[in-house]
Task: inverse folding
């Protein structure tokens, strides 16, 4: 309507002035409701054509959208294990800090496993003390075996020497018995040596390995126990946290609630513009927005990112072939807009619906002198008509509370 009024001032109004003061035709006399089309047909046709051209230019070079929202990422509160809730530390809605225990699962099984692992370590420590005693015992047996061997060897050497000096003085049977005794003492010495080596190996290698395994089992049991304490990963606020003791939570199918990180939805506004404006939307464009949760306020913004892909065209692997007619609504160009001034989104509730405009600026191109006079004039016109869209946004911001509260029927 505003574009039509502006164009009528340039077409219908001059045509009427010509008819009135040049041809002497007056309203209500020669120009009536039935003859207005014939008398002002040139102005009316020119007005319609100019209005269509102006609206096309405005909406193409200065795109607008009502699909703008302060999106924010939520963090689901999901434990790593399935269990029954034993304790809940926060209410339905409450602020939390990173590391706070939100709730605790029943940990009887994990605590039992932890105690078992601790007892296993104590058992290994006791086995190490026993192994040290076994080494001392083996050393005593080794000394005893050495003494017995030395005694048998000395007696054998003595009787063998006597036999050499005076054959027949020592019965051969006694010498053979002593030889067998020496061999037996040597076997006892070897057995004592092996027993000591076995005890030392058990103390230095086997038991430390068992203790390391027991400590690893203890650490694993401690991790399993820690998993029963579900903590907040970031500073934020829990919402719809209706968990109560006795509930069953499952990491696959049932979460415990939602954690909204601090500052979520207060950085950027995400807006979806029409596909036809893909060549116009550029990073650095000046934009404006007004949100329903902060009425009568225009927020200056700047385009910081333009998504290169349209979400409606994505294809996921599945068992059915793609049918193009299933995409009923055409996708939009997703644009990220951030406030120009610090704190520009303060007072705007995250998730709020907004209306956004983006404005094309050709000032740098015109100032560079690389374009001709005619094109420079055309670019000036393109930049100037952005004022119309800015006026429309302000009218929308003014009427938005009335439209929402009165005309919507709520």
Result:
């Amino acid at each position: 309507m505003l574009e039509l009024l502006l164009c009528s001032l340039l077409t219908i109004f001059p045509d009427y002035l010509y008819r009135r003061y040049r041809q002497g035709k007056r309203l209500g006399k020669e120009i009536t409701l039935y003859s207005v089309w014939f008398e002002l047909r040139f102005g009316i046709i020119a007005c319609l054509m100019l209005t269509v051209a102006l609206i096309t230019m405005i909406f193409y070079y200065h795109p607008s959208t009502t699909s703008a929202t302060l999106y924010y990422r939520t963090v689901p509160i999901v434990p790593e294990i399935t269990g029954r809730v034993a304790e809940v530390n926060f209410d339905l809605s409450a602020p939390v800090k990173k590391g706070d225990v939100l709730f605790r699962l029943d940990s009887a099984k994990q605590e039992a496993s932890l105690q078992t692992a601790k007892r296993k370590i104590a058992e290994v420590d006791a086995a190490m003390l026993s192994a040290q005693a076994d080494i001392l015992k083996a050393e005593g047996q080794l000394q005893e075996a050495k003494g017995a061997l030395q005694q048998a060897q000395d007696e054998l050497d003595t009787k063998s020497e006597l036999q050499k000096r005076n054959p027949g003085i020592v019965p051969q049977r006694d010498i053979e018995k002593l030889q067998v005794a020496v061999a037996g003492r040597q076997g006892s010495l070897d057995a004592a040596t092996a027993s000591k080596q076995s005890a030392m190996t058990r103390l230095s290698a086997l038991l430390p390995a068992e203790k390391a395994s027991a400590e690893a089992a203890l650490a694993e049991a401690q991790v399993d126990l820690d998993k029963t304490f579900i903590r907040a990963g970031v500073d934020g606020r829990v919402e719809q946290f209706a968990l109560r003791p006795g509930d069953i939570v499952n990491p696959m199918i049932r979460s415990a609630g939602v954690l909204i990180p601090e500052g979520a939805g207060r950085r950027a506004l995400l807006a979806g513009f029409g596909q036809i404006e893909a060549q116009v939307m550029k990073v650095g464009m000046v934009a404006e927005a007004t949100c329903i949760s902060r009425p009568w306020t225009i927020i200056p913004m700047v385009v910081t990112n333009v998504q290169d892909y349209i979400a409606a065209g994505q294809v996921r692997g599945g068992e059915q072939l793609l049918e193009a007619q299933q995409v009923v609504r055409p996708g939009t160009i997703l644009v990220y807009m951030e406030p120009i001034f610090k704190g520009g989104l303060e007072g705007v509730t995250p998730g709020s619906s907004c209306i956004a405009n983006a404005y094309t600026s050709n000032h740098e191109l015109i100032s560079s002198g690389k374009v001709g006079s005619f094109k420079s004039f055309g670019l000036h016109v393109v930049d100037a008509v952005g004022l119309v869209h800015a006026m429309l946004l302000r009218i929308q911001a003014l009427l938005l509370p009335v439209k929402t509260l009165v005309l919507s029927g709520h």
User: Anything to note?
Assistant: The mean pLDDT is 83. The radius of gyration is 47 Å. Residues 11 and 45 are 9 Å apart (CA to CA). DSSP finds nine helices and 14 strands in the chain.
